Amino acid sequence: MADVFFTSDHHFGDRSILDVESRPFPGVPEMNEVMVARWNETVTPEDRVYHLGDFSVLDQEETRRVVSRLNGYKILILGNHDREHGRTRSWWLDAGFQEAHETGLIYQNFFLLTHEPLYMNKHMPFVNVHGHIHGQKYADKQHFNVCVEHWNYRPVSFGEMRRILAGEIK
């Protein structure tokens, strides 16, 4: 049975992210290869992956090569870096994503999928699944950060996310 995964902020090809986020890789090629390997160790070809933005700074041909190597049906919600240099929804579809969205999505009528975290007051009955803030994390149950830095550079499954939110696992 297919599973659903969430992830964000891979920044494939981005040299500066190594320093900015203190990523544990000697260089960009090693970072890219480890992230592809960990994605494919986690996700099967039948699974669905929501990437919540900032996927790649590579040109379209190189980005297409990376996307084609990754397992699963891939859905991108554009992040701030995904829009740079005139990159549009159609650019990302041409790069190999099966779906690309300019704005966030609602998943199962309860989870708000966005790149940047949204303001959520304590009375809102939703969970904001987001990226963008990398190593930072909100201490409330209404935000769930899926940036690769929190998940050992792999996507996190919907089931695991729900168990964490329910307090069943830490």
From TrEMBL:
InterPro entries: Metallo-depent_PP-like (IPR029052). It comes from the Bacteria. Gene3D superfamilies: 3.60.21.10. This is Phosphoesterase. It comes from Paenibacillus spiritus. The lineage of its organism: Bacteria, Bacillati, Bacillota, Bacilli, Bacillales.
